[in-house]
Specification:
This protein is of the alpha/beta class and 190 residues long. The protein has one domain: Rossmann fold, CATH 3.40.50.1470. The strands form 2 sheets. It has a 4-stranded mixed sheet. Strands 2-3-4 form a 3-stranded antiparallel sheet, with helices on both faces. A hairpin with a 2-residue loop joins strand 3 and strand 4. Helix 1 packs across helix 5 and helix 5 packs antiparallel against helix 6. The longest helix is centred in the C-terminal third of the chain and has 24 residues. The relative contact order is 0.18. The mean pLDDT is 88.
Length: 190
């Protein structure tokens, strides 16, 4: 499992770091420590639902996250199709999740970098909707911005649901995860 984001305190609570937030939640809930560093990534190993995982966060900036992840996957002999990549998505409304097998980058620079590094996109994605700016600000300003006060009130529930989706993908497969999580509005569901 790979959570995408930007390193450093400046970007810690930004929309672009939703992947890091979910990775941190998984680490916390399953007692996985990010106590290893290699190939410009931090990672830890652990057990989730009786499955051994490597949980990683690349420390390169989002648009250069592919090479660190590819080197880590190569080192641990992890095939591209056995990866789950967790990332933000402006094309999904805030509070929505979408699981997707394979596909293109959809304009997401982190996914583009991964596809370039791996020579394709044969990995499962867990997309976390951060929506588009309602104030008309540009994409970069929006994704590097912090969640609004109203969004922040719902953020913990969204991160927890994304963790649940990641665990479902891991333990039951992407198709089951799609059936359970795609199209659900986390803002109004209990």
């Amino acid at each position: 499992m790979v959570g995408l984001g930007n390193p450093g305190n400046t970007y810690q609570d930004t929309r672009h770091n939703a992947g890091f937030m979910v990775a941190d939640k998984i680490a916390q809930d399953f007692s996985i420590e990010f106590n290893n560093q290699k190939f410009d990534s931090v990672f830890g190993r652990g057990i989730v639902e009786d499955v051994e995982i490597l949980l990683a966060k690349p420390l390169a900036f989002m648009n250069r996250s592919g090479p660190p992840v590819q080197k880590l996957a190569h080192y641990f002999r992890i095939q591209c199709e056995d990866m789950l990549v967790i990332h933000d998505d402006i094309d999904l409304a805030y509070g929505r999740l979408k699981i997707k097998e394979k596909g293109g980058h959809g304009g997401h620079n982190g996914i583009r970098s991964l596809m370039d590094a791996f020579g394709g996109g044969d990995f499962v994605r867990l997309r976390i909707g951060v929506g588009r700016s309602e104030a008309g600000e540009g994409v970069t300003g929006h994704v590097l911005g912090r969640f609004s006060a109203a969004q922040s009130q719902l953020l913990a529930r969204i991160i927890t649901s994304a963790r649940d989706a990641a665990v479902t993908i891991l333990s039951q497969g992407a198709k089951v995860g799609m059936n359970l999580f795609n199209g659900k509005d986390l803002k109004i569901s209990e």
